[in-house]
Q: What sequence folds into this?
């Protein structure tokens, strides 16, 4: 199994830092929906799990206000460095470099555990959520957004299917292996959170277009699509020739998704998950 902490400190982290502005623009509609479900009120203490480059730390700090407290936790040193830069002037925000499934967080110290696409990478999700529940106050809330299944997310499946046509299909990961689509099955999410001791678990569907590129030629969009999701993982160890073939294959399948503003916009589908601590 891939070591997730090493993975998020490797070339992927560099890509996330380099592409931070563009990735935030793509993910913001999903994050905003999750922030609304979290219903954060002034003075609350919030833990942002897998805060990455810090976009949601800024939004959470805004909602929790001058008397609130926002703590981001992430094992990725390069992404956290960007988050620290962005939050340098916010006294209510701090970050912890660490694995959220095991780092000591202080019992009962948060009103809300929040995440934008940062909770699908735990090797043992039941144990991780049990640990996170321990950091919540007795009536604390959990609120996160995660992707639905790969097949429900054309922004990832369309380029992936095009690339496997030319480079071959990789070994499928073991069932339920950590990864961006590992929380696609709603019954699995219910099971994990129930076993971790959460109550009143709800999953609500949320859909938005995910935009790539801005130029009318679509070349830029094809390059951007190759840098994210399962295609990026597939191309990680490939040589330049294979990457060029992959980008050409993606370029060939995206014209139906061309957007009037330039670039392409492909459908994305997520779960907005909420639950509450019942200890
Ligand atoms: C898809 S990125 C999302 C980043 C950020 N939340 C955003 O929306 O821009 C997933 C994040 O989860 C983090 N992550 C992976 N495993 C983690 C763990 N065990 N504990 C905390 N964060 C983790 C990664 O380092 C990465 O920053």
A:
């Amino acid at each position: 199994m891939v070591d997730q902490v090493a993975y998020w400190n490797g070339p992927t982290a560099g890509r996330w830092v380099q592409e931070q502005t563009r990735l935030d623009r793509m993910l913001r509609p999903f994050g905003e929906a999750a922030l609304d479900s979290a219903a954060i009120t002034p003075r609350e203490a919030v833990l942002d799990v897998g805060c990455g480059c810090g976009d949601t730390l800024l939004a959470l700090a805004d909602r929790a206000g001058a008397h609130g407290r926002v703590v981001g936790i992430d094992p990725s040193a390069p992404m956290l460095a960007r988050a620290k830069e962005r939050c340098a002037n916010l006294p209510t925000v701090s970050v912890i470099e660490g694995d959220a499934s095991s780092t000591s967080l202080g019992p009962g110290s948060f009103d809300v555990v929040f995440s934008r696409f940062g909770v699908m990478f735990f090797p043992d999700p039941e144990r991780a959520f049990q640990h996170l529940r321990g950091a919540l106050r007795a009536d604390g809330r959990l609120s996160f957004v995660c992707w639905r299944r790969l097949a429900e997310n054309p922004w990832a499946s369309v380029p992936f299917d095009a690339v496997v046509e030319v480079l071959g299909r990789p070994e499928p990961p073991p069932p339920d292996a950590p990864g961006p689509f590992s929380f696609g099955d709603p019954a699995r999410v219910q099971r994990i959170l129930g076993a971790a001791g959460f109550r009143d678990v709800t999953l609500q569907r949320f859909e938005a277009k995910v935009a790539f590129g801005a130029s009318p030629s679509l070349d830029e969009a094809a390059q951007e699509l190759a840098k994210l999701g399962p295609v990026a993982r597939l191309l990680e160890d490939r040589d330049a020739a294979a990457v060029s073939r992959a980008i050409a294959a993606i370029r060939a399948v995206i014209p139906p998704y061309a957007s009037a503003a330039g670039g392409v916009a492909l459908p994305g589908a997520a779960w907005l998950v909420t639950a509450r601590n019942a200890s």
Observations:
- The first helix runs from residue 4 to 7.
- Residues 4, 8, 27, 49-53, 55-56, 73-76, 79, 99-101, 116-118, 121-122 surround S-adenosylmethionine (CB under 6 Å).
- The chain is about 40% helix and 25% strand.
- The radius of gyration is 19 Å.
